Amino acid sequence: MHTYAQENQALSVTIKDIAKEAGVSHSMVSRALRGSTLISKATTKLIHDTALKLRYFPSIAVRSLKTNRSQALGVIVSNIDDPHFSEILQGIEEVAQGNDYSLFMAASQCDPDREGSIIQSMRQHRVDEVIICSTTFRNRPGCLSSLTTFTRFPAVNRKRESLR
């Protein structure tokens, strides 16, 4: 029977654990798991088999510390039930998944203060980019400046005048 404790233990397996079990260095494990051609096929297989045996899952949080990228995309919509934005969300999700990005979506419920809180939360969770699909997004004091920590922040609006 699979238990929560077993799952939690699997989440704590590190490349150092794999290295110890396989009898190799942790840098060799790192290279092998990233597909480096500098590691022999036999050693790579040993490392992959050991990782599987130990139920290793790479930590996106640890990887993001080294790469400064979270592979996460934030999307803010006005309302989840708006058919216009649900179609846009579906397209964003397909492209995000196809490029190994996780998608974090939040609805502002047409509340500018809530929208600001969502942007702050996405910044704290280190999402790489934010797409704003909101009819209420405006260039009000602090709104655009709160997005400057993101590389890009496209805005998808139904009404052009809402960007005033």
Descriptive report:
The chain has helices at residues 4-11, 15-22, 26-33, 41-53, 60-67, 83-98, 112-124; strands at 72-77, 102-107, 129-133. It is mainly alpha-helical and 164 residues long. It starts with a helix and ends in a 31-residue tail after the last strand. It has two domains: 4-58, lambda repressor-like DNA-binding domains (434 Repressor (Amino-terminal Domain), Orthogonal Bundle); 69-163, 3-Layer(aba) Sandwich (Rossmann fold). A three-stranded parallel β-sheet has the order 2-1-3, sandwiched between helices.
The main pleated sheet reads as: 3 strands, parallel
**Radius of gyration from the alpha-carbon trace, in angstroms:** 21 Å
Residues in helices, as a percent range: 40-55%
* Number of extended strands: 3
Q: Trace the largest sheet across and list its strands.
A: 2-1-3
Order of helices and strands: HHHHHEHEHE
Mean pLDDT: 79
Give the overall shape.
Answer: elongated
- The third-level CATH topology of the largest domain is Rossmann fold
Q: Which structural class should the secondary elements be placed in?
A: mainly alpha
Count, helices: 7
- What's the structural domain tally? 2
CATH superfamily of the largest domain: Response regulator
CATH architecture assignment of the largest domain = 3-Layer(aba) Sandwich
Measured between the Cα atoms of the first and last residue, the distance is 58 Å
Strand portion, in percent?
5-15%
Low-pLDDT runs of 5+ residues are 2-8, 158-164
* CATH level-1 class of the largest domain: Alpha Beta
